[in-house]
Amino acid sequence: MQPESSTIKTPLSIPDYRRYWLARFLAVFATISMVVLIGYQTYDVARADYGMDRPEAAFQLGLLGLAQFIPLFLLTPVAGIVADRFDRRVVVLIANLVDAFIAVVLAVLTFQDALNLPILFTLAALHGGARVFNGPALSAIAPNIVPPRLLPRAIALGSIAWQVGSVIGPGAGGLMFEISPSLPHFISAGLLLVSGFLIMTVRPVRAKHDGPPVHPLRQILLGFQFVRKERFLLGCITLDLFAILLAGATALLPVYARDILNVGADGLGFMRGAIAAGAAIVALFLSFRPLENNVGVKMLWSVAVFGAVTIAFALSRDYLLSLALLAMLGATDMVSVFIRSSLIQLNTPDTMRGRVSSISGLAISASNELGEMQSGLAAVVLGATGAVVFGGAGAIFVTLLWAFWFPEIRNAKTFSSKYLDDDPPREKPV
């Protein structure tokens, strides 16, 4: 039985939210471990089996990001509709099953030493397709099981699940990879199945719809129109898109791990884990002491500092210093993610949360996957260090532009909401 809304002091008092949190943690642990190792295996296969030099192999990482982005780009409008029209738990379950299948294929082919670049690119694209449906559905569940007044804390706690999974997943995956390269992929498959079972124990979650049904194409259009008209949402989403698109240091971490810092696959796992550790610490702090004042300005500053720390990481040649800088990257990014996620969820009606989440997810994916492509191309021209420096400087420049182009962000003082009662205007059917 769920506790009465008025007596709830923390989202963790809600049984559905606890199961949701654990399901998210396990899925993140599994998928991040899998994705990091796909990147390392791609770079290693390119160097060892195809005889590529460092820039050519780094470019393969860019192509890997592009392989993940293409299905994200093509399927995002459909994913938003699916999250807004069907049971969001089932959508998450199916996405988990697809990722579990990918993990099993990786495990078997790794065990047989049968991996090659076409297979790795295909599996990366399939993961991109699963993720595009998972993200909007999973993000839209929390506002339906948590009272609006506790949503910022729920988002911070959800970020802890994400970041702790991102800390432990790559580190554990890297260590298991050293024991047996196929072991972490088998473990990922099992955790994804457990995550899917847990999410199905949450009460059914479907978006609320009033009035007559709306044509799916009209629904897609309404979602994009809503974001375009709401300049505040548009500014938040596009700031992340262009800043992270440029400052894609994580895309080149396999290059740093293998050829610059010389720490191997386990070192790469700890490097990815350091980013998540910094983010998890900040998320834990924000779950107890959420930001309340001048949230827009703080988001802008966090992105600018993110760019500056990216430059410092690019120039570091000491492993411990690099880990510390990566932790700072995660910490500053978490501040931005917390503010942006809270503001987007609180200022979006429930009938559109799936679509707006999918649009936001597309921007995040574009910044990540296309950022990997950008980093791979820049590494060919500028080298790995030059590419990361260029990206950090670009993030700072974008932040300055957005501060003036979107004064709505600067003027955001608190986490206010138009839709606390979930009473949005009805969509007009075609």
How would you characterize the overall build of this protein?
There is one protein chain. 59% of the residues are buried. The chain is mainly α and 430 residues long. Helices cover 78% and strands 0% of the residues. Residues 419-430 have low confidence and may be disordered. The protein is globular and about 60 Å long. It has one domain: Up-down Bundle (Growth Hormone, Chain: A).
Topology:
Blueprint: H1 15-48, H2 54-85, H3 88-111, H4 117-145, H5 151-179, H6 183-200, H7 216-229, H8 231-246, H9 253-260, H10 264-288, H11 295-315, H12 319-346, H13 353-405, H14 407-410
Helix pairs in contact: 1-2, 1-4, 1-5, 1-6, 1-10, 2-4, 2-7, 2-13, 3-4, 3-6, 4-13, 5-10, 5-12, 8-12, 8-13, 9-10, 10-12, 11-12, 11-13
And the CATH topology? Growth Hormone, Chain: A
Number of folding domains? 1
Number of helices: 14
| Fourth-level CATH superfamily | MFS general substrate transporter like domains
Helicity range = over 70%
Instruction: Give the CA-CA distance, first to last residue.
Output: 40 Å
By CATH reckoning, the class would read Mainly Alpha
Strand content: under 5%
User: How would you sum up the global shape?
Assistant: globular
